[in-house]
Write a structure and sequence with these properties.
Elements (H helix, E strand, L loop, with lengths): L35 H4 L2 H15 L17 H9 L8 E4 L1 E3 L4 E8 L2 E8 L5 E4 L5 H4 L14 E11 L5 E13 L2 E14 L1 H5 L5 E4 L16 H5 L7 E5 L7 E4 L7 E9 L8 E2 L3 E4 L2 E4 L6 E3 L6 E3 L1 H8 L6 E3 L4 E5 L7 E5 L2 E5 L5 E4 L4 E4 L1 E3 L6 E3 L1 H4 L2 E6 L4 E7 L2
Parallel strand pairs: 4-9, 5-8, 16-25, 17-24
Antiparallel strand pairs: 1-11, 2-3, 3-4, 3-7, 5-9, 6-7, 7-8, 10-11, 10-26, 12-27, 13-16, 14-15, 14-20, 17-25, 18-19, 19-23, 20-21, 22-23, 26-27
């Protein structure tokens, strides 16, 4: 999970940059008033605003953005890493969509207890609801109980505290336990047990926590950061990879240690990652609207973030896209671009290195905000120094995260 400036969850002294859903920070000159039906649909609008806050407002100080590191041949680099000696461990879990694809949840077993967690390539903490929370806070969540695990060990003196730009957050203690993701198992994985959570997390009854899958340098545990699940298990995997194949129909998966060729078409195209940022960060110097390409020399780098729902781009790219949609305008009431749901939307694509990752026009809409008005899945990053490629884009592609070669591979998903 990240804010529009590319930040993961943990707050530091610097105030994080967030999107203000009540102010027009990127409106084009033809901004119009809100659709009348939005104003009469207060409950639906409140629900959408709550989700937007939860999506955009989590914050952490942003590492300096820089271009992706160069590699003489990403195909060769990837092939060399994949042929290296590894164990044979693999794991696979379903990625079940919730809230219209706002998040994808997967079953994870911790100390023999099953929880549904959000796999997030934009952060590096594995934290869960725990029985140290009040019954009111736990609500409908599954809560991890360390007393019921014979393998749990407290990490004395270590804590975590995650704060977000809208005031939401979580904090607690840290320990070790056995974590099993679809058969891929780490016997001594750092887990962060929430002893306090904000109301935003309490109200999201679908998710029991997160599995952070960015690089371990972003882990928030104090005084000593801990390794992510992927970093811990990578040397034991048959291949040093995990993959994301997300789908709104519920058939999507995350896999560790293997690349299932039946889940994509054509060849995987690999792009080097600037791992020094802590993110799966890539160059993105081109976009396409309705098949018309546009190169950019001043584009912000992008991060591949399964924990963000939307595609958050530099403002001029977003304005260019919605300029092709007659009914589109920036609506400060909901904090983003909306349009008539009956519109026929143009296809859109952005570059991930040299790979053009497309979204068909039918896949642009994120959610309706009224009976006639829809909220777009392509929105502005409010001029921050990172673009965020979230699930609106990723669900149309098969994505490989190679931790040893530090490359991203992408191909069109198989039908």
């Amino acid at each position: 999970m990240t804010t529009p400036d590319g930040s993961p969850w943990v707050a530091v002294s610097k105030t994080p940059t967030t999107i203000n859903l009540h102010a027009n920070t990127s409106a084009p000159s033809n901004t119009t008033s809100s659709d009348q039906s939005i104003a009469t649909n207060d409950r639906h609008l409140s629900d959408l605003r709550s989700w937007l806050y939860a999506t955009f407002s989590w914050g952490y100080e942003t590492p300096a953005a820089s271009s992706a590191v160069a590699a003489p041949s990403t195909q060769a680099t990837y092939a060399a890493a994949s042929s290296a000696a590894h164990s044979s461990a693999t794991g696979e879990v379903l990625a079940t969509p919730a809230d219209n694809g706002a998040e994808y949840l997967s079953p994870v077993t911790i100390g023999g207890q099953k929880l549904d967690l959000n796999f997030d390539t934009g952060s590096s903490d594995l934290w869960v609801f725990s029985t140290a929370l009040t019954s009111a806070q736990i609500g409908e969540h599954s809560a991890y109980d360390p007393s019921k695990s014979s393998s749990y060990q407290q990490l004395d003196g270590s804590t975590f505290s995650l704060s977000y730009g809208d005031g939401s957050g979580a904090a607690g203690v840290v320990g070790f336990d056995t974590v099993d993701i679809g058969g891929a198992t780490v016997t001594r994985q750092a887990i962060e047990l929430a002893t306090s959570v904000s109301s935003a997390f309490v109200s999201d009854a679908d998710s029991d926590g997160l599995v952070g899958l960015a690089f371990s340098t972003l882990n928030s545990v104090s005084p000593r950061p801990q390794k992510t699940f992927f970093d811990n298990i990578m040397s034991e995997l048959a291949q040093p990879v995990f993959t994301a194949a997300l789908d709104l129909d519920g058939s999507g998966t995350y896999e560790f240690g293997t690349i299932d060729s039946s889940k994509f078409t054509g060849d995987l195209q690999f792009t080097p990652v600037n791992a020094s940022s802590g993110f799966w960060q890539v160059d993105s110097n081109r976009y396409s609207i309705g098949g018309k390409d546009c190169d950019r020399t001043n584009a912000s780098p992008a991060i591949i973030d399964t924990g963000t729902s939307l595609l958050l781009l530099d403002p001029e790219v977003v304005q260019a896209y919605y300029a092709d949609i007659p009914s589109a305008s920036y609506d400060s009431t909901v904090g983003g671009y909306t349009y008539d749901c009956s519109e026929s939307l143009p296809e859109f694509a952005v570059a991930v290195g040299d790979y053009m990752a497309n979204i068909p026009g039918s896949g642009i809409t994120f959610a309706p905000v009224s009976t006639k008005t829809c909220f777009g899945g392509v929105q502005s990053n409010s001029g921050s120094d990172l673009q965020i490629f979230g699930d609106v884009l990723l669900k149309h592609h098969f994505v490989v995260f190679n931790g040893q070669s530090e490359v991203i591979g992408m191909a069109a998903k198989a039908e």
